[in-house]
Amino acid sequence: MSVQQSTNTTVTVGAPSYLRLHASGELTRRIERAYEILKHCTLCPRYCGVNRLAGERGYCRSGAEPIIASWAAHPWEEPPISGANGSGTIFFTYCTARCLFCQNYPISQLGVGQQVTVQRLAEMMLELQGRGCHNINLVTPTHFVPQILAALPIAIEQGLRLPLVYNSSGYETIGTLRLLDGVVDIYLPDAKYADEAIARRLSGFCGYVAANRAALREMYHQVGKELLLDENGLAARGMIIRHMVLPGGLAGTRQVLAWIAHQLSPFIHISLMAQYFPAHKAVGDPILGRKITDEEYLEALAAFDALGLERGWRQEHCEAEL
Ligand code: SF4
């Protein structure tokens, strides 16, 4: 991601939080609770209620085992996430949404990926650590939270010491997030929309705005407003909210930013993204079928500044490249 950086807070930080939970036995209890949820799945706000352990499938089409599309060092996340060596991304297959414009739709909607065991998932975490990645970045993880939790003790016992980044659409339940309290050190959620009807039409979400805002509050409660960096400038704990500006004002950018500034904190780090391009079913759409204009992104930046938001990243945007 091409970015300009603004204020961060640098402190000395310790080991990832999950080590304490593992040592106390609480991580084992969380895993048990998480697998109980899979018997009547309410991991996300769709509340399908299917028994995924018995082979039933809900909206996300996911079952008892994790499905992984790819795992690799990723250099293009926000600077304190990617650092010099890259963020250790693990892309989970399927999703709890069906965005018309999803740039990863073969993975999120067509199911490209490979089913693996939790043992293999743990090995992937360790391989990414071995490659020098700065964190384990769980991309689209919501529907596989129990499996991620189950992989963690295996990885910890074999030396995993990287912080976990929970990189999600921000469509979460409080119950699932509470399973992650003290496990995840860095939340990287989206705040995609300000309007429920648009969220439903473009992404198939049910009740996105309400769920997203409750989720952001819970994440904030868990990790606080400060993005804590280690001595090398790498994120160790905190949250970064991502918002991608959509053409035609469809993301409700000003309202999303206003809610964050007024209801959460003006000191939250925000990644204001200009990288939208039409993909999947957005190609040829009268509104979604184009990139955003310079004016649209400048409007978003003006709203960011007018609301007193000052922490985060903005992308360089050049309409000439469109
Ligand atoms: S995680 Fe999947 S099965 Fe569970 S509630 Fe969400 S969409 Fe339904």
Would you kindly provide a brief summary of this structure?
The protein is an alpha/beta fold and 322 residues long. It has helices at residues 18-24, 26-38, 79-82, 105-108, 118-130, 145-157, 174-179, 196-203, 208-223, 253-264, 294-306; strands at 3-5, 9-10, 67-74, 87-92, 114-115, 136-139, 164-168, 186-189, 228-229, 235-244, 269-273, 312-315.
Count of discrete alpha- or pi-helical segments spanning 4 or more residues: 11
Give the fraction of residues assigned to helices: 25-40%
User: CA-to-CA gap between the ends?
Assistant: 16 Å
Overall residue-averaged pLDDT value:
94
Summarize the biggest pleated sheet.
12 strands, mixed
Low-confidence residue ranges: 1-6
Structural class: alpha/beta
Strand content: 15-25%
Radius of gyration: 19 Å
Which kinds of small molecule does this entry bind, naming each only once?
Answer: iron/sulfur cluster
Task: Give the H and E element order.
Answer: EEHHEHEHEHEHEHEHHEEHEHE
Shape: globular
Tally of DSSP β-strands:
12
